Amino acid sequence: MSLPKQVTKVHATGNDFVVYLDRSGKFEPTPDEIRFLCDRHFGIGGDGLIRLTRPDFVSDLSDDQLADMLAGGAKWFMDYRNADGSLAEMCGNGTRAITLFAQRMGVADETEPFRLGTRAGVKILTPRGNMKPYGADVFQVQMGAWTIGEADAYEVTIPGTAGSARGTFVDMGNPHVVAVIEDAFSTLPVVEDLDLVTKPVVSPVIESDQNVEFARIDDIDERAGLGEATMRVNERGCGETLSCGTGLCATGIVLRSKTGIDHWDITVRGGTLRVDVTDNDVRLTGSASIVADITLL
């Protein structure tokens, strides 16, 4: 087995992960091992697996990516894999989960920003402590640059569910299509009634598989410049999850494009998070929690 004996279960607003520290680079997981550990019946259970290691020990990184890690000051790398064993460029909730774990393991400072390497570049995480209404062990993640496609350019359907919605493509280092439903373009059920166990279909087809978010605007306070929304998500590689960090950011970006509001409190099944959008950056604020240490047999 190419896994250490000790792993840890961590979640960030219900997006849960099996994580471990690999100081030596000896414990790169295989797809079969990832699928086993993330299985909720025969393994530990998780939306993904995260190996915290040095950038030099990540076999799929190019020389240019390694140079970016060095230039960005990232001594540690979030080697994130989806529950099906596939590689993932980025996971916003995963950055908070692995940073809390890194603090516990003594490789991240509990009060200073932490520079974390990912396949989508270096992310900076700032500890915020306890912060209402977002919870305990809150981090703000500087998620970096984003791009958005043509508004409502995609038709989004759910097999077995009547109706459709229009979606907008957002690149957060990984691909998203965000559908704002319960508006004039949508004939799908309300957000709470959607069947997201079934994988949504996006048309026209995007080259790479994508995450799909369904969002509803709940309230806008124009004087405060703050909006409130509800979101659910089907993540590629693991199905519906209680939260998706890059999906929350993509949703905030699309809501901004439709309303002009830069700041959003977005509620997912795992809790409420803050998304702050500018032209050049998006920041995600939310909590993380360590659940258990586990010894593998």
Automatic annotation (TrEMBL):
Q: Does the keyword tRNA processing apply?
A: no
* Keyword Isomerase annotated: yes
Instruction: Please give the biological process terms from Gene Ontology that the record holds.
Output: lysine biosynthetic process via diaminopimelate
Site, Could be important to modulate the pK values of the two catalytic cysteine residues: residue positions = 176, 235
Name where it's found: Cytoplasm
Give the residues annotated as active site.
91 (proton donor), 91, 244 (proton acceptor)
Q: In which pathway does it act?
A: Amino-acid biosynthesis; L-lysine biosynthesis via DAP pathway; DL-2,6-diaminopimelate from LL-2,6-diaminopimelate: step 1/1
Alphabetized InterPro entries for the sequence: DAP_epimerase_AS, DAP_epimerase_DapF
Please state what class of enzyme this protein is.
isomerase
Highest taxon, organism lineage = Bacteria
Keywords associated with the record: Amino-acid biosynthesis, Cytoplasm, Isomerase, Lysine biosynthesis
Reaction(s) the record says it catalyses: (2S,6S)-2,6-diaminopimelate = meso-2,6-diaminopimelate
An example Gene Ontology CC term for this record: cytosol
User: Which EC number applies?
Assistant: 5.1.1.7
* Entry GO MF terms: diaminopimelate epimerase activity
Ligand binding (substrate): 15, 82, 92-93, 174, 211, 235-236, 245-246
The family note in this entry says: Belongs to the diaminopimelate epimerase family.
Cite the record's note on assembly: Homodimer.
Entry-linked PANTHER family = DIAMINOPIMELATE EPIMERASE, DIAMINOPIMELATE EPIMERASE, CHLOROPLASTIC
Question: HAMAP family attached here?
Answer: DAP_epimerase
Q: What is this protein for, i.e. what is its function?
A: Catalyzes the stereoinversion of LL-2,6-diaminopimelate (L,L-DAP) to meso-diaminopimelate (meso-DAP), a precursor of L-lysine and an essential component of the bacterial peptidoglycan.
UniProt protein name: Diaminopimelate epimerase
